[in-house]
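Two quick folds needed for the group meeting slides. Do the first one here.
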Amino acid sequence: MGLNKRQYALIAFLSDNKKQIDVNEQIYRNLNDAKDCLVFTLDLELRLDLLLENYAALERYVMRAAVNNAIFPGQASSALSETKHEINRLLVNLLSSARLYLDQTASAISRFKHSPEGTTQAFRNLRKNAYDGDSSYRIMEALRNYSQHCSLPAHSISFNTKVDESNPDSPRNRYTVSFGIMPRMLEADTRFNRSALKELQSISDSHGRVEAFPIVREYVSYISDIHLRVKRMYENLINGADTLFENTYSDLRSESGEAPHAVFCTRVDGDDYTELPINRDLIIERKNLERKHVLSGSFNTRYASSH
């Protein structure tokens, strides 16, 4: 009785037919490894996008509240409760997505079989260095635990108006909305990190309030920096996977005379049939997100204005 021999092939689906090219096992394995790498790095970028979109939603809402205050100042008192609730909802979303990014990335790095040696520990070190070296990072991590186990993180909302005299010939009223953290409200939670509490107390104003947005912006900026450092760890793997997928498409286009609209690498082993999609959308979607995120970070050095 003869033994079944494994067979491998690239199949390109064209406009009115398909083209098959026999390949060897190593090509199949290389394409499978490249696909795993592309899925890993796309997921990494999607996790950051979730965090940044939640951060952007918070920034947009606070700006919209300030615009409403400028146009309808008489509604400020009645809008306080609704504004505080919405800011808390958006802030909790941000804190949750930050933790999701950090925890899921740690898990993905440890599970990804092609992670460079030492990457798991390197990511742990990035998180530890961020926690040890940045007070905003420590405070936001403590606030996330507080919001999960105790209460909502934004304690106070302020609708402010002051005269902007940057142009003495045409002074204008400037309307802002801010939200704050009250350290005295955190003291009752015995689980709240005591060192983070002391740091908040040390920067509270005469009313016992800490302006929260600078801390939020610094925290998101720090995670954006961690993301960039992780991407550098995988740079060679990503470039290699991109090149292999792109070259596979290019070779099939040359062989068939037209761009295939779908490509698969197949393995036949007796009755066992495996189909591996060679999906360039993994590259396209990731690169679109990379362009979107390319200058993310240092958010405390930016502001948006309508004039």
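Then this one, please, same format:
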Amino acid sequence: MKVPKYHVHRLNEHTYQFFSTGPRGMFELRIIFSRESGESGDELYNLAFGLWSLDVQDIDDSIELRNGDADRILSTVAKTALDFLERHPGAFVFAQGSTPSRTRKYQMGICKYLVEVPKHIKISGLRAEPTSCHTSNWTDFEVGVNYRAFILYSNLRYI
């Protein structure tokens, strides 16, 4: 089942814009991929999205729009992340909700549409509960396991 997506404008290499439309009005949202410094030298980007604030010229990821289009917004963000990985095949995209409940909502979206994720895209999750059998709690994404954060990457980088 394909969820409709909003039309996205790429403002620059790392910033994307779209508009939520619904019963509460039209709202500008932005998706920002911020390069993070890492010890290994990998291209690690933090994915952040939220309501664009003209006053502070930044996103506010704490506001809940309640505009009746949450699935469409998440589908748009997911598609944009996949497009970003196509443009940056060596990148790792880190995603985590601003609250545990938002992270859980993102996880439910991943589970619901996992079959639509291209086969060359891999998703790892940071387990919510520590496990004794793993030195790292980052594991391949599995349905039915709770996670605190996610990393998406293309396995085409290894071919």
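Slide caption for protein two: The chain has one domain: 9-158.
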